[in-house]
UniProtKB/TrEMBL annotation:
A Gene Ontology molecular function term of the record: proton-transporting ATP synthase activity, rotational mechanism
Species the sequence originates in: Aspergillus nanangensis
Keyword Metal-binding: no
Cell compartments where the protein resides: Membrane
Protein's name according to its UniProt entry: ATP synthase subunit 5, mitochondrial
Species classification: Eukaryota, Fungi, Dikarya, Ascomycota, Pezizomycotina
UniProt cross-references to HAMAP family, sorted A to Z: ATP_synth_delta_bact
Keyword terms, alphabetized: ATP synthesis, Hydrogen ion transport, Ion transport, Membrane, Transport
Record flagged with keyword Ion transport: yes
Coarse class of the protein's main subcellular location: membrane
């Protein structure tokens, strides 16, 4: 894992993160050498990680490198999710300039990207003490790319992991409904044992709660109101 390799190389950092940025996110962004174009992100994002994701999307779009950048961010997101200690390590306030350069070089390798956009972006995060936001940036960049491709996210939460056949049936059912809005669905599955059983399906601003926990809650309310 990257966190172990960095630790062995001499990095000894705590998981404490900066509570405030040294500079505002946009003011601290590195200037990308891209042609002047009017690029508008497909959706508006919130939060500091959303600001960075939007800036990266704009830079990649201007350089016609959206797919390449998306692949790199997906790779980095998978690394961060696989090694949960890594976010704390790369966001530690005790990192030296040399530490940060080493981290950026390692992340660049793991991204699989050889261009300057992702590299410059990682350097920007490093200089602004924002490497701890990288996982959030990866997630929000994917949100931008989904909107760019005309996708709409279909979130399926179940008490137990669903098999592929059930997921496919649900996807087809939603595709034929008005909820899909004629867009391509991006299926995201989650497991939440608190549901007890059943499903919660979310698409756009619509939520269909078919969980057992929801039915129990309604039953309890009906009993309470009747007493």
């Amino acid at each position: 894992m990257l966190s172990a390799r960095l630790a062995r190389s001499g990095l000894r950092a705590t998981a404490q993160q900066f509570s405030a940025p040294r500079t505002a996110a946009l003011n601290g962004l590195r200037t990308y050498a891209t042609p002047a174009q009017d690029v508008r992100p497909p959706v508006s994002l919130f939060g500091v990680d959303g600001t960075y994701a939007t800036a990266l999307y704009t830079a990649a779009a201007k350089s016609s490198a959206l797919d390449q950048t998306s692949k790199a961010l997906t790779n980095l997101g998978q690394v961060l999710k696989a090694d949960r200690k890594l976010t704390g390590l790369i966001s530690a306030p005790t990192l030296t300039v040399t530490d940060k350069k080493q981290i950026v070089a390692e992340l660049q390798k793991l991204s699989g990207d050889k261009g300057e956009i992702v590299q410059n972006f990682l350097v920007t995060l490093s200089e602004n003490h924002r490497l701890g936001l990288l996982e959030g940036v990866c997630d929000k960049f994917e949100t931008l790319m989904g909107a760019h491709r005309g996708e709409i996210e279909l979130n399926i939460t179940s008490a137990q992991e669903l098999d592929n056949k059930t997921i496919t049936r649900l996807e087809k059912a939603v595709t034929k409904s008005e909820f899909s809005q004629g867009k391509k669905l991006k299926v995201v599955t989650k497991v939440d044992s608190d549901l007890v059983g059943g499903l919660v399906v979310e698409i756009g601003d619509r939520t269909i709660d078919l969980s057992v926990s929801s039915k129990i809650a309604k039953l309890n309310k009906a009993l309470t109101d009747a007493l």
